[in-house]
Amino acid sequence: MSARTMNTYPNESEKERPLLEDIRLLGRILGDVIREQEGEDDFALIERIRQLAVADRRERSSDEVPLQRLLEQLSGDQTVTVVRAFTYFSHLANLAEDQHFLRRREVHERRGEHSRGSIAGALEALRQAGVDNGAIVRMLDNAYVSPVLTAHPTEVQRKSILDAEKTIAALLAQRGQWLEQSRLDAQPDARLPGRLADNEEALRARVTQLWQTRLLRYSRLSVQDEIENALSYYEATFLREIPQLYAELEKRLHEPHIASFFRMGQWIGGDRDGNPNVTAQTLRYALRRQAAVALRHYLDEVHALGAELSMSERRAGVSAELRALAERSGDDSPHRDDEPYRRVLTGIYARLAATLAQLSPGAQPPRLVQRPGPAYAHAGELLADLQVIAESLRSHHGTALLSAHLQPLLRKVEVFGFHLTTLDMRQSSDQHEAVLTELLQVARVESDYAALDEAARCRLLLQLLGEARPLRVLDHAYSDKAQGELAIFDAAREALTTYGPQAIRHYIISHTESVSDLLEALLLLKEAGLVQGLLAEGARAAIIVVPLFETIGDLRNAPGIMRDYYAQDGIARMVLASGAEQDIMLGYSDSNKDGGILTSNWELYVAETRLAECFAELGRQHGSAIGLRMFHGRGGAVGRGGGPSYDAILAQPPGTVCGQIRLTEQGEVIGSKYANPEIGRRNLETLVAATLEATLLPQRREVPADFLQAAQQLSDASMAAYRQLVYETPDFASYFFNATPVREIAELNIGSRPASRKPGQRLEDLRAIPWGFGWGQSRLTLPGWYGFGSAVAHYLEAEPAGRDERLARLQQMAREWPFFRTLLSNMDMVLAKSDLALAERYSTLVPDQALARQVFAAMAAEWQRTVLALTQITGHGERLAANPGLARSIRHRFPYIDPLHHLQVELLRRWRAGETDERVQTAIHISINGIAAALRNTG
């Protein structure tokens, strides 16, 4: 962490010089802080480990004895210090890279170059394709784009750490702007040295804060903690950046107002699948806190408007509507007698404060209210008041005053309302079955619902959906499970009444495997008054029932299940009467864990295509379209659907986006994408740009039949290879649980949800999230590539005489088919982040070394086959040849995570051997944090 930290790479291009300067600066400051806080001996020890790791990485020598011997000799305190040092270096390197990304993008924009994934780039591509602004606006009128924040046990950062790092990022940005300006100025700025010195001192203070702040949580996160963490991103990024996104679209399309098609979604507080800590109380808490964040933000903005709109009626006229609103404001201060805008805003502020007190009891407005006003009944009333101000300004030479605060505030109220974000509810289908079994038994309707076959279940459920009577028996002592489930449905009904129809729109059914799974959820919604009317007599549903298809088998059955669901009497009529929207969620995690990356991606592609065909047919049958919206359950790692969102959306099957898409943002990815507001804005732009292009670009033609046939053959062979290793190799689960830190990950206080659905060490019970997390920590990243090499080899060797023709077909698929190209790109990235030498060290932790050698040899052979297959298809022998930015990141960063891996293996060995010193456990958990931060996609 000295000034020599990055001198290992002297041949970097000039454009990378600012990045290297930032990393050197942060590394030097970190080194100084360690020397000051821990002493010269510990600093020298860290430097020695760094040098040995860099040398080992550069030479890739098999002789790791000096480094290994040194690490084995570390005391408990030394180990914790070393792990913390390299972990914080990874965090600081991330901040420097983020700033460099923004810096390079600004350079390109100043040159008039439009980046891939930007709104400007998407609109330019559409114009070149002959798509006019009118077509774009019409598409956006009916579009729905929504990133959905979820809480999963991979978010390894504490909010305290994120807040300090946010300040460091801002200081780096400030420093970069000064240096860039000094390069452009003809005359040197005499103030620059002093400014830079002050900036460095501010950075030093924040790095000191980081070093003295606890990296780990002593207690497990509660659901309330997760809610608060998520809400911090709204205050920092979404509330401020989303209105700017709309403003850019309007400016570039020359439109005064674009429909509010882009909205945020959230699971935290409503997702109870496998999480017993989510209850009706947490749902109410989430909604109450969301309202508080939105309303307090509006109160601040209204206060700022009051300072800004100081116009006297003696100097500028106002509309009759505004004057009337001022008279009703309750503000009779003589100091504002001639300032109608301020009087109106005083009244709005009072009404917002009353609304805050009503929707979020206990929350206080930022400033005192002199005279209380009546609460707003809904956000539309606030919007109407603000529009009166806007129209008065426009009609009285005040248009220039709209852009700073009023126009963004109008957009915020449209998008965020009083609910802030749409909160999804989710539960597993087996829980619905258990509750209904109890309800039906107590009501003397069916003694054992769970024992019925599928046909009998559907008949009974449809009959009950057509009856007016409730199932609940008053005063009966239902089980705690049934009471808890019914309470959350009741809380949802209250929420829609209190916060408006956008507060909760989706009810997601995990493990949807049959039509009855959908009907069960619908019946429970009816029991809470969320389905009004009878199914056969024009019922309307206040919430969309959303099936989640997760495993390979579920994905294959999805089109048939949906076709049969809509064939039930009354279902299509109900959906059409309720808004004609149908969301279907597709799970990337379990499908990958079930069949490997290639088969998972292919089965998702096929399912989407067939679902789109199914709903097109439904539209023809009923003479009215039912809008199909895919909801992609993407995780952080490629093995769970991760990777660049822009490419992922463009890789969707033709005709399946149509301006409609939801996708999850999970775990540590939320911090990586949205902690920095400018980075957050760019990531939000990417979703819009990709949706525009995927929907409107005409070159998205039908995929050739031979491409589809080849993909199916590859998928079959890939799944066979994957299943042979993971599910057919005896004791493979033992290898995984011992050769990765997955057991220790479960002990980390990094989420409210248990890591496994059931206790024990069965892969079937392990959640897909720690499955991917564990492989990432051990640097094998197996879920992101395994099976592809065998699949390609099998495909090419199936017809030896036609091998060249088949290889040419795969190369053509990579050039012309976005789905295949994106799949290869993601595997390329994962392979670049993998490291067989480090992964082999983790295999030494497996007690049965014969098993370890057998399994590792199989994985290493497949790794080689996959690398060869990528080289054959893409023509690139080096990984990330098409992504120099990421290649640079890996080149700079990975020598400094190697010590964390070496230490983690040693620490795991000690811990599992019974060395239960708390410092050993602490160091393991910090190493998990550091590796996760450095890889930037842990699970």
Verbal overview:
By secondary structure, the chain is mainly alpha-helical. Among the domains are: 290-416, de novo design (two linked rop proteins) (Up-down Bundle), CATH 1.20.1440; 705-935, no CATH class. Strand 6 (531-532) and strand 7 (540-541) form a beta hairpin. Mean pLDDT is 90; it is low at 3-12.
Provide a compact summary of the structure.
With 939 residues, this protein is mainly alpha-helical. Among the domains are: 290-416, Phosphoenolpyruvate/pyruvate domain (de novo design (two linked rop proteins)), CATH 1.20.1440; 705-935, no CATH class.
Main beta-sheet strand count, sense and barrel state: 9 strands, parallel
Radius of gyration: 29 Å
Helix content: 55-70%
Q: Mean pLDDT score, rounded? A: 90
Terminal CA distance: 28 Å
Helix/strand-derived category reads mainly alpha
Runs in which pLDDT lies below 50 for 5 or more consecutive residues are: 3-12
In spatial order, strands of the major sheet run: 3-2-1-11-10-9-8-5-4
Features:
939 residues; mainly alpha; de novo design (two linked rop proteins); 9-stranded parallel β-sheet; two-stranded antiparallel ribbon; 37 helices; 62% helix; disordered N terminus
What's the structural blueprint in terms of helices and strands?
Elements: H1 17-38, H2 40-59, H3 65-72, H4 76-110, H5 119-128, H6 133-141, E1 144-150, H7 159-184, H8 192-212, H9 223-253, E2 265-266, H10 280-308, H11 320-327, H12 340-359, H13 379-395, H14 402-416, E3 422-423, E4 425-428, H15 429-442, H16 454-465, H17 480-499, E5 506-510, H18 515-527, E6 531-532, E7 540-541, E8 544-549, H19 552-567, H20 571-577, E9 581-587, H21 589-595, H22 597-622, E10 627-633, H23 645-650, E11 660-666, H24 668-674, H25 677-696, H26 705-726, H27 732-739, H28 742-747, H29 768-777, H30 788-797, H31 803-816, H32 818-833, H33 836-843, H34 849-874, H35 884-893, H36 898-912, H37 918-935
Parallel strand pairs: 1-2, 1-11, 2-3, 4-5, 5-8, 8-9, 9-10, 10-11
Antiparallel strand pairs: 6-7
Helix pairs in contact: 1-2, 1-4, 1-8, 4-7, 4-37, 5-25, 7-8, 9-10, 9-14, 9-25, 10-12, 10-14, 10-17, 11-12, 11-13, 13-14, 15-17, 15-18, 16-18, 18-19, 19-22, 21-22, 22-26, 26-30, 30-34, 31-32, 36-37
